[in-house]
Amino acid sequence: MNNKNYEASIEAILFTMGESVPVEKIAAALDLGMDDTKVIIETMKKQYESSDRGIRLIELEDSVQLCTKADYYEAILRVATQPKKHVLTDVMLETLAIIAYKQPVTRLEIEKIRGVKSDHAVNKLLEYDLIKELGRLDAPGRPILFGTTEEFLRCFGVQSVDELPALSTEKLEEFKQEAEEEMQLKVQV
Questions:
Q1: Which of 24, 44, 137, 169 is deepest in the core (most CB within 10 A)?
Q2: How far is CA 161 from CA 101, 147, 188, in A?
Q3: Can you say whether the dihedral through the CA atoms of 112, 117, 119, 125 is positive or negative?
Q4: Cα–Cα separations (whole angstroms), residue 76 to 65, 80, 83, 84, 96
């Protein structure tokens, strides 16, 4: 193995570990002596410092670590503080639409409309902060009432649920018919 291969191996080890790695472990992994390993690390350190790269190699006692150069912290923070994009499946979107239009609504009402269990979808929507618990229904078992959150409004670009598109009576009838057809298919199976 030549020096470039050793450098690539050291870089791969440090990148993968994400934290400081003792030089002794690197030397053992590469089957090199400590002195040879330190020479290669010192060469790499100089290359990182002299080039226009976003990372550098630092030494911490008898260990080394890859880290970002301070010049690039601002760019990193802009990415690191961006909100995560959550993927909404068709099931989750359907459940969310029911909650948005019928809120406050219980899980049982959601399942009655959908015709199937909705635990996973409701839990994911809670996790994504698109819905929240609004309280409990004053009925046997005191079921939880769900409604949408401010995050829901932000994500869908509306100021309130009143701005959601109105469902036309024709669309409602179409949905009812589809639901009835689905129920008939389930009964036949």
A1: 44
A2: 8, 10, 38
A3: negative
A4: 18, 6, 14, 15, 33
Q: Is 6 helix (H, G, I), strand (E, B) or coil?
A: helix
Q: Which residues contact 63 (CB under 8 A, 6 or more apart)?
A: 20, 21, 22, 23
Quick one: fold of 3-79? Answer: Arc Repressor Mutant, subunit A (1.10.10)
Residue 129 DSSP code: T
Rounded to a whole number of angstroms, the distance between the first and last alpha carbons of the chain is: 65
Residue 27: its pLDDT value, please? 95
Give pLDDT tens digits for 128-178. 999 999 999 988 989 999 999 888 888 887 777 888 888 777 766 776 676
Q: How many CA atoms lie within 13 A of 148 on its CB side?
A: 23
The per-residue pLDDT for 40 is 94
Structure confidence at residue 160 (pLDDT): 79
